[in-house]
Structures are given as structure tokens and as C-alpha cells.
Design goal:
Blueprint lengths: L8 E12 L6 H4 L4 E8 L9 E11 L8 E5 L5 E8 L5 E13 L10
Protein name: H-type lectin domain-containing protein
Pfam families: H_lectin (PF09458)
Organism: Thalassovita aquimarina
């Protein structure tokens, strides 16, 4: 469990189109085997400490003739940014993906004193 020590809590959120591979014959649509896409997201304001980040698929367009295999995570979370990581494997064909994300964490208070 992430415990927040600040009375200033920030919530940042967004929606990111990760790829649209059916338009250009990209590997998520035409390839096979392990495939991965990473997209860096920068928060609108810096958090005091690394926030909790969740990601969810807000749009996906997939081929119905193969099994849908997918993994979606937030990685490398810092106070200022994180990476959305989407991966698939085997013969899954993904035409396009859009991901919604939300970050919740402590913000710095200009009235807060930093006493060692």
C-alpha cells in the first residue's frame, strides 16, 4: 500500500494513442512473436515522490481471427514521468490501441519546510 504523507494530493490523467499499425503495415498488425511498444508520458506537474499510476485500454482494434494476447503496464515511474508499455505475442494482430492513464500522488507544498 502506498501511504501519502502530504495534505496536497495531485491527480493527473490522460489518454494516449500508442499506435495505429494497420494504416502502415506495422509489426503489431503484420508481425508475429513477441512485440512491444513503449511511450513516455510526462506529468503536467512534478510530484513530490513517485505517484501510483494505473493504465487501462480505452480503445483497441484487434483481428477477430486470432487470440487476443496483451499486457499493459506502467513502468519506470518517477516524479516527473513514466512509460506506458504494451506488449503482445504469438500470432495476435493489433490494429490500434489507445490507453487511458491516471497518476495519484503527493505534491510539494510551498509552505512546507524541509528540515533534515
Amino acid at each position: 500500500m502506498k501511504k501519502l504523507k502530504s495534505n496536497l494530493i495531485g491527480i493527473d490523467q490522460g489518454d494516449v494513442a500508442l499506435f495505429s499499425d494497420f494504416e502502415n503495415g506495422g509489426d503489431m498488425w503484420t508481425g508475429e512473436g513477441n512485440r512491444e511498444r513503449r511511450t513516455k508520458v510526462v506529468f503536467s506537474e512534478k510530484f513530490k515522490s513517485a505517484p501510483a499510476v494505473t493504465c487501462s485500454v480505452s480503445l483497441w482494434d484487434v483481428d477477430y481471427s486470432t487470440n487476443v494476447r496483451a499486457d499493459l503496464t506502467a513502468q519506470n515511474i518517477t516524479t516527473s514521468d513514466f512509460e506506458i508499455v504494451f506488449s503482445t505475442w504469438d500470432n495476435t494482430r493489433i490494429a490500434r490501441i489507445r490507453v487511458s492513464w491516471m497518476a495519484i500522488g503527493e505534491l510539494s507544498d510551498e509552505d512546507e519546510w524541509d528540515i533534515p
